[in-house]
Amino acid sequence: MPKTATLPRHPATAAPPACLAGLLRAWLPRQRWFAGKDRPLTELTLLSMTELFPGCLHVLVEAGDCYQLLLGTRATPSPRLRHALIGRAEAGALAGLTVYDALQDPRAARFLLERLRHPGSAGPLRFEADPAVRVPAGLAPRVLDAEQSNSSLVYGNAFILKVFRRVQAGVNPDLEVPGALAAQGCGRVPAPVAWLRTTFPLEATLGVLQPFLPDARDGWELALRALASGDAFTDASRELGQAMAEVHVTLASAFPRGAHADRARTAAAMTERLTAAARAVPSLRPHVPGLRTAFDALAACDPGPPAQRVHGDLHLGQVLRTGGDWFVIDFEGEPSRPLAERRGVQSPVRDIAGMLRSFDYAARQRLPWRPEWARRCREAFCAGYADRAGWDPRTTHALLRAHETDRAVYEVLYEARHRPDWLPVPMAAIERLAVRGG
């Protein structure tokens, strides 16, 4: 039985070993998935620590948010792990050992898969699986290069394990939603086959194993290829709209629907996010009055379709195409938003607005900018959606403008913090959306 050590969730009594805390304070802010880059990391609280096997620790730490780490410890790590090094411990129980990100270690990756293949527990950790799906042994692991807010391991080009880095209490939608869609017979989403969760210090989902589509290309890559080759991409966009409508229709059946969203409350929340973003990004401030008109109009507009479960962070990078079919992935939603909000019902127009913004992003990746290409793709996507959904997003202009504006404001804040060179892309949309009718 793996040894486990858990500590109460109190900063005064739960400080991690000093040597490890110092290493993590230097390493965490450099990680792509760490959300606290805009504030000093001064406090670390150890929430739980479980030895999965000798030389590998599963750790949950509080560093502004709760983060999941898999830490390897070796006296002399392999040169192949140079890129994964965190540092060398100089004191305490880990003195003389090199600490590294064990998700980059094939040995640890293989062990994780074995634990998922054979459900059971290790301290507060629970490894669970769909008994109807057989996962073969010995699949070679590799880290997926395109890392965002999580880390992913691909096994033998057959399965992909997403490890959630930021952890919040509750069932993660990326486990809950694909499972529910699969139960409804929706073939647009790879169904979970195994998952990892914790029971201490919070009940939370830690990772999900799903089938991997090795020959698939994501919508972002396909859109950029289309732009480079002069392809209009309208046929693919229309089919993507149809696929997304099928997912929305199935979601409406799989989960209870809500009443029409409280538009006044939604508008107030959007205005609050705009105000906060304008404080952080000076270039946004001149457009605030015009952008507020989109939110003011929302309070009095046609309510559109009833609220339901949605994707929550839809864009071209969240869809895959293979064999002529579109698949939808990554139902986690925006990790920066509370889990309760991400699991709640929302207007499906939010997803549509996210995809429309994504076409704009693609059109502005190379000069000359191609606004007409984006406009035609947007129209085709909405037309395809209307074919299957029974309603046309273009008929809810005020609702769509408000959600697209809210998305663009989020993009401005994100780019200003993480990719300043990309800031002109959402700012171009801000200038359009700040004009009535934009």
In short:
The protein has 438 residues and is α+β, with helices and mostly antiparallel strands. The protein has helices spanning 18-27, 106-117, 173-183, 219-229, 234-254, 263-280, 288-298, 339-342, 349-363, 371-389, 397-418, 424-433, and strands spanning 4-6, 45-53, 56-63, 65-74, 85-88, 98-101, 120-122, 125-129, 141-143, 150-155, 159-164, 166-167, 194-198, 204-211, 217-218, 319-322, 325-328. The strands form 3 sheets. Strands 1, 2, 3, 4, 5, 6 and 12 form a 7-stranded antiparallel β-sheet that branches. The protein has a 7-stranded antiparallel β-sheet with strand order 7-8-13-14-11-10-9, with helices on one face.
Q: For the terminal residues, how far apart are their CA atoms? A: 61 Å
Q: What amount of the residues lies in strands?
A: 15-25%
| Large-scale geometry | globular
> What is CATH's topology name of the largest domain?
Aminoglycoside 3'-phosphotransferase, Chain: A, domain 2
| Biggest beta sheet summary | 7 strands, antiparallel
Structure summary, number of beta strands? 17
Q: What is the typical, i.e. mean, pLDDT? A: 91
What key attributes describe this structure?
7-stranded antiparallel β-sheet, alpha+beta, disordered N terminus, globular, single chain, 438 residues
Task: Characterise this structure.
The structure is a single chain. This protein has twelve helices and 17 strands. The protein has three domains: 4-102, no CATH class; 107-211, Phosphorylase Kinase, domain 1; 217-433, Alpha-Beta Complex (Aminoglycoside 3'-phosphotransferase, Chain: A, domain 2), CATH 3.90.1200. It is α+β, with helices and mostly antiparallel strands and 438 residues long. The radius of gyration is 23 Å and the shape is globular. The model is unreliable at 1-15 (pLDDT under 50). It has helices spanning 18-27, 106-117, 173-183, 219-229, 234-254, 263-280, 288-298, 339-342, 349-363, 371-389, 397-418, 424-433, and strands at residues 4-6, 45-53, 56-63, 65-74, 85-88, 98-101, 120-122, 125-129, 141-143, 150-155, 159-164, 166-167, 194-198, 204-211, 217-218, 319-322, 325-328. The strands form three sheets. Strands 1, 2, 3, 4, 5, 6 and 12 form a seven-stranded antiparallel beta sheet that branches. The longest helix has 22 residues, at 397-418. Helix content is 37%, strand content 20%.
